[in-house]
Each structure stands twice: as C-alpha cells, then as structure tokens.
Specification:
GMP Synthetase, Chain A, domain 3; globular; about 130 residues; 3 helices; about 25% strand; alpha+beta
C-alpha cells in the first residue's frame, strides 16, 4: 500500500501538508523567524500522539457504553537529561468518579494501542531524495 501527502512551502516559515482533502498548516514561532500563525510541526507531532491515544480511549468507552463526558488526557513532555529533545512522554487519562473501577487498567491498555506510538517504537525507514521535475 502506498499513500501520498503533498507538502508545499509557503511564505516565510509556513509549510502545509495536503492529503485526503485536508490541509494542515504549520508555521514557526516568531522567535525563530515565523509568524506564529499555526502550530509548528513538532507540536503537531506531539499532538498526534495524544489525539491518537484519545481516539483509542474514546472507542474503548463507546464500545462499552461508558460516557466520555469528563474524560480527558493530559500529555506531559519531559526533556532528555541533555536538555535537547523529548526524553519521556507521560499521558494521564483523567476519568470522573463514575468511571468503572474495573476498566481503569483496560483504558490504559487501549490508549497504548495508539498507532502513532507504535510507529515511534518501531520506526519506519526514511528515504529522502531530490527529484527533478519538468
């Protein structure tokens, strides 16, 4: 299976990704020359981890008839000891008191099924190249 995403470079530090009828806009913060008009790519990367886990939590609850009102995920990032990059990501699944005790561990297991997380743990091979077009 093959799928494509078209990345286009805009003005300043803006770069967009187009796929499946959607456009994801990115920019850089003002302090590095961008306008701060959209999230930076790394923020979207981190958001993809949390939102993916959230989808699995939501699906888990929906399949068992558990209301999702009052459930939220809080994702915290910890720097590597060197101070450069992310060394640890913690996701706390906050549930209301009415959330069934018997599903507390199971909902964590559901969040751990996140495809984004699994791809980070078993990364794909990258092949970056230049292609001259007409």
């Amino acid at each position: 299976m093959k799928s494509e995403m078209i990345i286009t470079i805009g003005e300043g530090k803006k770069v967009d990704a187009e796929f499946g009828g959607f456009v994801i806009r990115t920019d850089q913060p003002r302090q590095v020359g961008g306008e701060g008009s959209a999230p930076e790519p790394f923020a979207l990367f981190l958001a993809s981890i949390g939102t993916c886990a959230g989808i699995f939590v939501s699906s888990f609850c929906q399949s068992r008839g558990i209301p999702t009102d009052g459930i939220r995920l809080v994702q915290t990032h910890y720097a590597k000891p060197s101070g450069y990059g992310i060394g640890r990501i913690e996701i706390a699944i906050e549930v209301p008191p009415s959330f069934p005790d018997k599903y507390r561990d199971a909902v964590v297991n559901a969040a751990n099924l996140c495809a984004v997380k699994r791809h980070i743990q078993d990364p794909p091979e990258f092949d970056v190249k230049t292609v001259v077009t007409a």
